[in-house]
Amino acid sequence: MCTLEKRRNLFILTLTGDNKYEHRLNPALISSIRSALAEARSQAVAGSVLITVAQGRFFSNGFDLRYAQSVGAKSGSIQASLDEVIRMVNLFKGVVSDFLTLPMPTVAAVGGHAAAAGLMLAMSHDYITMTSSRSVMYMSELDIGMTLPDYFTALIRAKIGSASARRNLMLRAAKVKADEAVKMGIVDSAHASPEEAVEAAMRLCDDLTKKKWNGKVYAEIRKASYPELCGLLGLKDEEILPSKL
User: Fold this and answer.
1) Is the CATH number 3.90.226.10 carried by domain 2-233?
2) Tens of pLDDT along 131-171?
């Protein structure tokens, strides 16, 4: 699951578990993340910022396909497993929407592998730091024989400007290490250890919280930066004007 800790204007969202946990995105974890983000949203003030970290050697290993298989096994239907995958794809839209509309800057400290929907979770943040010691970013859909949801491809197009980088990620299923992820524009900085990646993310959070930006304005400008993605998610723009001129 996950926890949310508040330290003054800093919210720390932690995907919890020991080294056996892959933080696979099943309905329970998706709901837990959304609840934590709703709590952060309700307490947000000017200058708030959120960092996401994960315990263990995975940031997130994507959708919980074993869970989907168990649903099918209980009903004796392969179709039930496929339907559960589709349900998780639709539920996860809410997580991406929540990050896009969250009224504060967001930073992901990727200290372990981020695969498929787990990579989309990281890329839903405004900034990413990553360790070079034990993690890769990997879109596994080509290898497992699954097409990408439309909002996944829109998120990738929105965040990765290079066509060759997108090709390597999606059409070669490349396992991208931190230094290469920086060159591809996925990651902002690479660090020798998971601890250093978190420390760098914390320093970035410190810099961002000093700005004291209006969170609603920040969220609207973020949304306006990704019109295709927001269109697929059904997010509408809201015009905000300064209260004092």
Assistant:
1) yes
2) 998 789 999 999 999 999 999 999 999 999 999 999 999 99
